[in-house]
Amino acid sequence: MQTAIQPDNHHAEPGKVRAALFALLIHLVFFGLLIFGLNWKNEAPEATIVELWQNFAETEPIKTTQPIKPTPPTPPVVQKPEPKVEPKPQPVESKSPRQPAITTAEPSPPLRKPAISLKAIKEKPAPKQTAEKPPEPVKKTVPETPSDKDIPQKPVEKKIANTQATEQKKQQEQERLALKAKQAQILDEIAKYKAMIQAKIRSRIVMPPDLPGNPVVEFRVILLPGGDVLSVDLRRSSGFTVFDDAVERAVHLARPLPLPPDPAFFREFRDFSLTVYYRE
């Protein structure tokens, strides 16, 4: 058998109803304030106009007006009467009776005839006015500047100039002699090596026997820098083919031909003429 215990509602707390009524009253008052105390409308804010001033006008200081003092009245000016000047009495001239002037009429001189008649006087012709010539323009004279030759030289400067001129002439003469000596040395060197080339070629010639006279043959020889023979061309024949061929063979056999050690002389030997006589 189950038994349920139920609460006894008859014995409630005595202040519970009062508290509930008081809480209800507070809520009603709060809701009333919310509804009637607040403005629930959305009103647009009023536009405000603001004036902006860039430069404020300077206010002039207020001038304080001083009270005008009354000027004292000026006393009237009393004009003094001017003293009357009495005219001085003029002296009375005593009039003396004038005596009548007695004039004697002189006889008038007779009119003389002019020595020169009016007709003889001729008017002189007026001088002719000649047109004045304009004044000639004044020519400006340019002062002549004295040249160096006209200026007299001082003795010291003249001596220095003469010394310099003498030294310059001496130097030029020395240069001329040195150039002449160098040219002579070059010619001697060229002649020396040409003689050596001709002697070497002649030593290689096999002379044909019993040729009449003294025939001569001429060749054009072109060399290379080392002294080697590039070509041998007959310029003038001796009239004997045997002799011409013997000389040409000797040129090829004599190579390399002797050349000066200075490369500047090679142009004198690159293309030269070789002349060989049968009899020395």
TrEMBL record:
Matches recorded under InterPro entries: Tol-Pal_TolA
Key words of the record: Cell cycle, Cell division, Coiled coil, Membrane, Transmembrane, Transmembrane helix
Domain of life: Bacteria
UniProt key word Methyltransferase: no
Biased composition (Basic and acidic residues): 120-156
CC terms in the record's Gene Ontology section: membrane
GO molecular function: toxin transmembrane transporter activity
Source organism of the structure: Nitrosomonas mobilis
Protein name: Cell division and transport-associated protein TolA
Region (Disordered): 61-156
